[in-house]
């Protein structure tokens, strides 16, 4: 029987890796002095939480600290930059589509077609990226020439209220509490239900309107932008804003579950790509100007190359190359692909540049615990000097 191999079209593929012997022109920023000692090997064990991977873990390399939040603690993220954009919580498989209505109090119906389907042992159905039911996994907010799926699933919030549609929202799935076989994962539980929402632009913020599908009255909440953060987050369950990401200068990477765009063949055009939900994902703080590069090395020389890698070499990397402006640049490339796989990639090390221009070399040590349970990553890193 022929097997289909899923190939990621994100920065995890080899065309986005940098040979350790190559040289690229780059610019050095003026770096603030981090609180960690330069040149020292540090170890972090992000508390992802095991085979159900219940947590999102934000890592600040500059201080060697982490912030842990449950991935179901929020629903929507409201952009605090210049544009008015809203993101979904992809870590619980939320999805949405615009309705042909601006009346939030109009009764709506469930539409199971917007639930995300990915190929697996029991199905060949897929959700095409071009349908635009989820946010672009790269973190890109603006669409490319109106192409659905190339930006946020929710269109830019207009100053003209009549242009802001009602959206049907699948609230995604509860975090599973099942115990899978050793080395496997179980991420999703019961469906969390449906909502209808409408978002309006108000002064320096957003007016969120939301209700159950059958309701003829809605609730409202105002979310004000805060320039110290990339996004402000809201939970419908809490009926309030919630604390999720650290300030935009205070984190570099997030260990999470989330979507990617993938294809069955390499270099597939956008209309052939589909949505895939991954565990063991690393997202970069791309909106906080964090960048990364992957260094493909000889697996037998990996430790030696990591130890010998210097700031001089890192300074030659062009971190602003287009493919590196991508929150999913590292994605799952740090580990070997495939369900049940528990090993780190044997031929990769990474270099990360933080928002202050400091550069770090990273090497991953584990995907699983010593007993074989997934969701226990370990990595080591050095602040280059």
Can you describe what's shown?
It is a single chain. This protein is mostly beta strands. The chain has 2 domains: 198 residues, no CATH class; 167 residues, no CATH class. Helix content is 3%, strand content 33%. It contains 2 helices and 22 strands. A hairpin with a 4-residue loop joins strand 4 and strand 5. The longest helix is centred in the C-terminal third of the chain and has 7 residues. It is globular, with a radius of gyration of 21 Å. The N terminus is likely disordered.
How is this structure best summarized?
The chain has 2 helices and 22 strands. It is mostly beta strands. The strands form 5 sheets. A 6-stranded mixed beta sheet has the order 2-19-20-21-22-3, with no helix packed on it. Strands 1, 4, 5, 17 and 18 form a 5-stranded antiparallel beta sheet that branches.
